[in-house]
């Protein structure tokens, strides 16, 4: 066929359809995080509604341990990576990935050993311990792999692993829900842990890297410079949310604690959405931060506008529908806590406004301000929580979180005014 004539022919219909499927990477990232968020939400609702509040409370206790270990893992491995990788040449990133996988393997072994040792003090934990160990190892490995895939630009593979894990998990939980007997806590944990394994294998195959410590001398110092303040900060972040929750359960009623946990579950969708933005945007913002500060300021402002436009309408609708939602999904007699969900909506508007400051602080060469900000915010919330809960009951806990965010944003703004006037 004449080449000139061939170029004049219209493209095949199949090619046109494929072109339409070439979405921007950020949409794949949002889709993946939405999958994770929806699965987490449905799992918690499943346990609370079908297994009873007692089982839900036990699951929440184990979940707090898991979240603590994931926070430490993120501070030691993936959060420093999101900053360091943007400053590395492409030729060195494969060796850096191998080092991160080796660190992940070491961390998983230490975490499992620590949990097993701690469980010896609680004889009642023996029935659940094997399932939780599998859940911990699989979830930790999957979390690191998907963040490495996102940083490497393999966003579709990250989405595929999320869908594979979520689909299997929901199918198994549905089978348990249709069973003749109520699901036990161990069964739920086995379902969540084992259905994560296929996603873990898929992510490892796509990444194509094997654990190796050979890059420790080359990258270790730069990685640790970021991690040294992130580690204590991650412990403070975990404590800031959960210490207030424990205080509310101790000082209040089981209904108050139940509503707070369910409110956390609902608002956790926004937490995971923010984490998706950070996982995808931070490695890319780090390049302009170091090479073109003026461009970084424009990119950060554009990102903040998109986040507000996407989230504020949803938060407004959630606040308006708070009464029916709490009555439908909350525990019996919990409808009076609708104001708590409305305060949560306001809290996340403030979080969205503070988030651009968080991203900029994360990109600083020294993470000291990131750490100090959380220290001040936790001190403020702990000092005020007794008065707030005494006057506003469960809503007082959310007001304590709100105060913490205001302190956090104020300190970070002052710190950036002194250290990074170009991009503040």
Outline:
globular
By secondary-structure content and strand pairing, the structural class works out as mainly alpha
Find the count of extended strands (DSSP E, 2+ residues).
0
> End-to-end distance, in Å?
59 Å
Strand content: under 5%
In round numbers, the mean pLDDT is 79
**Model regions low in confidence, pLDDT < 50 over at least 5 residues:** 1-21
Number of domains: 2
User: Largest beta sheet, briefly?
Assistant: none
H/E element sequence = HHHHHHHHHHHHHHHH
Helix fraction bin: over 70%
Rg over CA atoms: 23 Å
Helices, by number, come to 16
Keywords: Cell membrane, Membrane, Transmembrane, Transmembrane helix
Subcellular location: Cell membrane
InterPro entries: Poly_Biosynth_Transport
Protein name: O-antigen/teichoic acid export membrane protein
Protein architecture, described:
This protein folds into two domains: 24-214, no CATH class; 225-424, no CATH class. Helix 7 (155-177) packs antiparallel against helix 8 (185-194). The chain has helices spanning 3-8, 13-20, 25-51, 53-84, 90-119, 129-151, 155-177, 185-194, 197-207, 216-251, 254-291, 293-320, 322-329, 338-362, 368-392, 394-419. With 424 residues, the chain is mostly helical. The chain is built from 16 helices and no strands. 84% of the residues lie in helices and 0% in strands. It comes from Hymenobacter artigasi. Its main location: membrane.
Salient structural properties:
424 residues, mainly alpha, 16 helices, disordered N terminus
């Amino acid at each position: 066929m004449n080449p000139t004539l061939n170029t004049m022919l219209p493209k095949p219909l199949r090619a046109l359809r494929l072109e339409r499927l070439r979405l921007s990477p950020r949409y794949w990232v949002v889709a993946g995080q939405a999958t994770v968020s929806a699965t987490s939400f449905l799992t918690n609702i499943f346990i609370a509604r079908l297994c009873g509040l007692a089982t839900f409370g036990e699951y929440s206790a184990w979940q707090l341990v898991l979240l603590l270990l994931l926070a430490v893992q993120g501070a030691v491995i993936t959060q420093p990576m999101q900053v360091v990788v943007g400053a590395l040449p492409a030729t060195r990133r494969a060796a850096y990935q191998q080092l991160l996988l080796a660190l992940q393997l070491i961390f998983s072994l230490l975490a499992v050993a620590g949990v097993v040792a701690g469980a010896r003090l609680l004889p009642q934990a023996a029935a659940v311990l094997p399932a939780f160990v599998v859940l911990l190892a699989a979830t930790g490995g999957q979390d690191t792999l998907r963040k490495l895939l996102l940083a490497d630009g393999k966003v579709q593979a990250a989405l595929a692993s999320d869908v594979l894990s979520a689909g299997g998990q929901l199918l198994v939980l549905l089978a348990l829900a249709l069973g003749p007997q109520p699901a036990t806590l161990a069964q739920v944990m086995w379902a969540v842990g084992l259905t994560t394994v296929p996603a873990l294998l898929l992510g490892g195959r796509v990444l194509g890297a094997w654990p190796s410590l050979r890059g420790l001398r080359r990258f270790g110092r730069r990685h640790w410079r970021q991690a040294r303040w992130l580690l204590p900060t991650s412990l403070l972040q975990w404590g800031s949310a959960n210490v207030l929750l424990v205080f509310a359960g101790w000082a209040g009623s089981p209904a108050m604690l139940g509503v707070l946990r369910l409110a956390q579950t609902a608002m956790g969708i926004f937490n995971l959405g923010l984490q998706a933005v950070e996982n995808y945007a931070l490695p890319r913002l780090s390049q302009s931060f170091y090479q073109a500060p003026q461009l970084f300021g424009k990119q950060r402002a554009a990102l903040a506008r998109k986040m507000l436009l996407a989230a504020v309408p949803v938060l407004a609708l959630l606040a308006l529908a708070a009464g029916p939602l709490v009555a439908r999904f909350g525990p019996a007699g919990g409808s009076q806590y609708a104001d708590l969900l409305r305060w949560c909506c306001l809290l996340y508007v403030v979080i969205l406004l503070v988030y651009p400051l968080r991203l900029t602080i994360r990109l600083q060469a020294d993470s000291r301000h990131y750490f100090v900000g959380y220290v001040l915010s936790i001190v403020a919330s702990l000092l005020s929580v007794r008065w707030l809960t005494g006057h506003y009951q469960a809503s007082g806990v959310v007001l304590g979180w709100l105060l913490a965010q205001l302190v956090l944003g104020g300190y970070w703004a002052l710190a950036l005014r002194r250290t990074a006037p170009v991009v503040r």
